Amino acid sequence: MCREVAVAATSLWRRALAWLGGLLAVAPAAAVDVPADRAEAMFHVYDGGGMTASGPAFLVRKKLADRVSASASYYVDAVSNASIDVVTTASPFKETRNEVGLGLDWAVRDALVTASFSRSDEPDYTASTVGLDVAQDIFGGMTTVNLGFSRGSDTVLSVTDREFSDFARHWQYRVGVTQILTPRWLMSANLEAVADEGFLGSPYRAARVFGAAVPERLPRTRSGRAVKLRALGAVGDTGSMRGELRYYWDTWGLKATTVELGGAKRLGGDLDRWTGGWLVDAAVRLHSQNSALFYADNAETETTYLTRNRQLSAFRSTGIFLRGQRPLKLDWGGADWQFAAAYEFKRFSFSDFTDLRTGGAYAHNAHVLQILLSANY
């Protein structure tokens, strides 16, 4: 039941780590290499819309040879749920989600091959995903071509109906190109295709027909496409800026546009001063989407498919991100230590989803906090 927020929180964690790792480096690498040995420990908190999720996350990466690197991760979400869906149709609940991930990176000539596996468990949902990605440098490292594929297999249960059991399958195909335009600027274009099959809704969610609650009914197949364009460049000697545009559409009639603008700045290099040594990253993110073909806040007729899932309704969201990373002067194990903190504020405004408690359009705020300690060894 916490899967939607858990997936979003996991995505935010991975995206924050990627951005905090090297926003100022836009020059081509001398050669393809596997990631460096690294250990990370993070604590995260999500609070928004009546739902809270918090817990630790750990990642360890180690080279097995000059051209091979293995990684393992563990992620926990302790969820307390009293969201709008829960308080209007059911009772608040608490549960815990655990996710384990394994990865293997192999550098082959000018290519980096990555194989990954993850499995998450919660009382009513189990998800397993395997993936394979290849990043190939061409034209002397000026261009990188990325190809990827993932397949997910989920088991859906219900804590209120012990006889309910269903499945969901997910396929994702990725292709992208990153091009270095100048020594200070690069651009990337990515295309993603997804296909889903099976039970794609919630066994607890209800729709409304003439004010009466009826079980949600969704198609058992769905396919979607997403295009993302990104530009990143250095500004001066210690800054960078970036812009992203993503457009998504699918067979359920959803169309969504996301725009993000951000920049980073290194604040001096004196680690003895509080303001020195920081790499600060800030961004603004705008998202808007229409509603699915069979979405209805309060339907006036019975149809084959019907949902009142607010994530399939028309809404807008605004996000503000602030992240900081700083080296630490620690003499532990001969490693290079780093501290990072990230905060995100998001505002969701729904145009055709009614808060049954007030009769008005629903809106809520969300906050995400992440604290990270990492070591390169």
Note down, in words, how this protein is organized.
Residues 1-31 form the signal peptide. This is DUF3570 domain-containing protein. InterPro entries: DUF3570. Strand 4 (93-108) and strand 5 (111-122) form a beta hairpin. The chain has one domain (3-376): Porin. The chain is 7% helix and 63% strand. The longest helix is centred in the first third of the chain and has 20 residues, at 3-22. By secondary structure, the protein is mainly beta. The protein has helices spanning 3-22, 84-89; strands spanning 38-48, 51-65, 68-81, 93-108, 111-122, 125-138, 143-157, 165-182, 185-198, 206-209, 212-215, 221-235, 239-250, 255-267, 278-289, 315-328, 336-354, 361-376.
How does the SSE layout of this entry go?
Elements: H1 3-22, E1 38-48, E2 51-65, E3 68-81, H2 84-89, E4 93-108, E5 111-122, E6 125-138, E7 143-157, E8 165-182, E9 185-198, E10 206-209, E11 212-215, E12 221-235, E13 239-250, E14 255-267, E15 278-289, E16 315-328, E17 336-354, E18 361-376
Organism: Rubrivivax albus
Protein name: DUF3570 domain-containing protein
Signal peptide: 1-31
